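Saturday, quiet lab. Running sequence design on the structure tokens for the scaffold JK sent over.
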């Protein structure tokens, strides 16, 4: 039986449909391409959760397709910052409650402004981390956007 994560419990409480999808973890390959390969899914449907720090507004989250890198200029602009940078991996757990390879846009220690790449809307469902390595949440993009109150990261 799959152990429910905090992210899954929050979706349950909000009555949002989703499914939990396990995959084989490879500690040497935590990137989205490995997850997509394990799931047998298109890399563009497996989204990674990136935490950034803006120079004006502090921490924010970008949820991006596995095939893309975040454009720091675009991320800064949409988040109301002049510049931004990825947080250091050692900051991830204390700030979000999640570890690298298991960071979910759902259920961080506190809510941060979140921006989801517009390409998510091209799919009936996308995958995001369930909050632990080895488990993804398959969810309708609109449900994820509504639940997180996300803005859109432009194409």
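Result came back. Writing it out in full:
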């Amino acid at each position: 039986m799959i152990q429910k994560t905090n992210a899954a419990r929050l979706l349950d409480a909000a009555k949002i449909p989703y499914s939990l999808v396990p995959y084989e973890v490879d500690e040497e390959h935590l990137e989205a391409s490995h997850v997509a390969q394990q799931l047998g899914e298109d890399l563009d449907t497996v989204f990674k959760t990136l935490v950034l720090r803006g120079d004006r507004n502090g921490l924010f989250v970008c949820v991006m397709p596995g095939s893309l890198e975040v454009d720091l200029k675009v991320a800064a602009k949409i988040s109301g910052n002049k510049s931004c940078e990825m947080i250091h991996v050692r900051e991830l757990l204390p700030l979000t409650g999640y570890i690298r390879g298991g960071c979910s846009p759902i259920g961080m220690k506190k809510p941060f402004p979140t921006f989801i790449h517009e390409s998510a809307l091209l799919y009936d469902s996308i995958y995001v981390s369930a909050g632990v390595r080895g488990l993804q949440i398959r969810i309708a993009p609109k449900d994820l956007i509504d639940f997180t109150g996300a803005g859109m990261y432009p194409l």
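Notes for JK: The chain has a mean pLDDT of 96. Strands lie at 19-22, 47-54, 58-65, 84-86, 114-117, 126-129, 135-139, 151-153. Ask whether to fix the surface positions before the next round.
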